[in-house]
Amino acid sequence: MLLTACATGRINQFRQFADAGISYAEAVDALTREAASATVDADSAVLARTRSSVPQDDRARTVLEHNQLIRQRVEVLADLRRHARLLGAYFVTLASMTDPDAASEFGVAASELVESLGVVGARLRTARVGDLAVDDFTGRVVEISVAHLQKAVLERELRARSALLARELDLQQAAMHAVVQGMRADLAIVLRSQEKLEVVDPYRGNAKLPKSWAKRRREILTASMAIASAEAAGLAARRLGESFAAVAENRFGVAEFLSLMGDIQQTLDLIAAARGVGQDE
């Protein structure tokens, strides 16, 4: 009975972790899309503000150069999104290996997912988010001591690839850190522009205030406060790496699960704030 209870506990750990991994991947998907919008909007605000100082003959070249830089940033965000999706799929595969009837095909699927992670990860490692190099935020990967498991196929998988996964999770954390920092800077530019155009200028003028003025003022000021603590959203990636080590070492419990889900919620809060910035008057 004790052995059965322990085995059931380990199975639940992997399933909970897989659920959290899926939630994380979904949050990164939404975050990177909002970050792309923020990047374009911030650059558009800068181009509009500086347009009068650019000679007319240089304006086409200037906007095309900016477009190219934006495309590069968006591609980095797409790679981060792909990387998170592959991690989520890998965690689901691990959870599937806890099934008593797990087939050997799961091992093949896991191997293919890790191989794809390496390809996307190689691009991410050399990527830049504005002035920030992703590789500058990578750290020392801690060795994982895989605990014994009743499921041999799962234990073999973890022993074979836990070091590679730890490295990819560290890379995910580094890329998320760079993206969140860049997103915060972009949103700050957008917010300053919107505050001037939608809050300050209408109030300063003589015309009647738009009906949406108070609502937009609240949205912009609320978003400013949320974005000021954007670093908290980046903790989700770090917590994901810590949780992977915990589940492999048989120390992933309710507290670890709730901490991870709490950091994912912080990411969702940042996404909600970013969407508030992007609303039209």
Give an account of the 3D structure:
The protein has 281 residues and is mainly alpha-helical. The chain has one domain. The protein has seven helices and two strands. Strands 1-2 form a two-stranded antiparallel sheet. A hairpin with a 2-residue loop joins strand 1 and strand 2. Helix 1 runs antiparallel to helix 6, helix 4 runs antiparallel to helix 6 and helix 5 packs across helix 7. The longest helix is centred in the middle third of the chain and has 53 residues. The chain is elongated and about 75 Å long. The N terminus is likely disordered.
What brief labels describe this structure?
two-stranded antiparallel sheet, 1% strand, elongated, disordered N terminus, mainly alpha, 281 residues, 79% helix
Number of strands: 2
Please work out how many helical segments DSSP would assign: 7
Largest sheet: 2 strands, antiparallel
Whole-number mean pLDDT: 87
The largest sheet has its strands arranged as 1-2
Question: How many separate domains?
Answer: 1
What is the element layout, followed by pairings?
Blueprint: H1 2-50, H2 56-96, H3 105-125, E1 128-129, E2 132-133, H4 152-204, H5 213-228, H6 231-248, H7 254-277
Antiparallel strand pairs: 1-2
Helix pairs in contact: 1-2, 1-4, 1-6, 1-7, 2-3, 2-4, 3-4, 4-5, 4-6, 5-7, 6-7
Summary of the model, kept short:
The chain has 281 residues and is mostly helical. 79% of the residues lie in helices and 1% in strands.
